[in-house]
Amino acid sequence: MHSGLHMTSGSGWRSSLFQQCSVKEAFGGGSKSCAGSISGRHAGTSGARCIRLQQEGQLKRHRRLSPTAAFQDVAGVLVISAIPFLAVQALADSDLGSRLQEELEASKPQRRKEEQQYAAEAAAARADSRWYGPERPKWLGPLPHDYPAWLPAEVPGNYAFDPAGLSKDAEKFDRYFELELLHARWAMLGMLGAVLPELLQKFAGVNFVEPVWWRVGGAKA
């Protein structure tokens, strides 16, 4: 970019600005250019247009590299996700893991007794609680409704909501119950995955494209 300031006799000061910028397109390898010799008040507008074109070219080049950045992010997530499983497997294969397994096997009879005692105490607590049993609160509150009878009243969080009849089969209901617990465990791991990249980048020097979980989509757009 070049600019010059000159004076013409009888007409006072005039400003002359020559601007030229070339922006490479992200695809095709061609080029765009905007060039002009502008005077006075038009110089700022043309300069801003040239800067905007330069920024668009940089953005296109950044987007062209985004697949590599996305691959790096996916690889990082996979490595971080594999750490707990590798650690558990290493512990299981060690001498410490063998000793822990033997101790667990030896403590099984006592644990079974404790489990039975806990189940009896839980059943008594449910019998005294308003959140269990046939008179528990329902999802429609006091409104009359033909609630499904196949949902067990002793299950926590049962507000008698099953309009699609997905749990009519008792075995399917037990399966869904276990899957819901599994989903909750994965949600806990997801919370850890949301915080861990920020901590690693801040304290361990690991470089992520965007460590803040809720900004990741915007960084890849």
Secondary-structure element sequence? EEEHHHHHH
| Main sheet characteristics | 3 strands, antiparallel
* Rg (CA only): 34 Å
How far is the first residue's CA from the last residue's CA?
31 Å
| Class computed from helices, strands and strand pairing | alpha+beta
Oligomer: single chain
> What share of residues is helical?
55-70%
Mean pLDDT: 74
Poorly predicted runs? 1-43
Could you give the count of β-strands? 3
Dominant shape: flat
Instruction: Please list the strands of the largest sheet in the order they lie side by side.
Output: 1-2-3
Count of alpha and pi helical runs = 6
Strand percent estimate: 5-15%
Topology:
Elements: E1 2-8, E2 12-24, E3 31-39, H1 42-64, H2 66-93, H3 95-106, H4 108-128, H5 170-203, H6 216-220
Helix pairs in contact: 2-3
Question: What would you note in describing this structure?
Answer:
The structure is a single chain. The protein has six helices and three strands, in the order βββαααααα. The protein has helices spanning 42-64, 66-93, 95-106, 108-128, 170-203, 216-220, and strands at 2-8, 12-24, 31-39. Strands 1-2-3 form a three-stranded antiparallel β-sheet, covered by helices on one side. α2 (66-93) packs across α3. The longest helix is centred in the last third of the chain and has 34 residues, at 170-203.
Write a brief caption for the model.
This protein has 221 residues and is an alpha+beta fold.
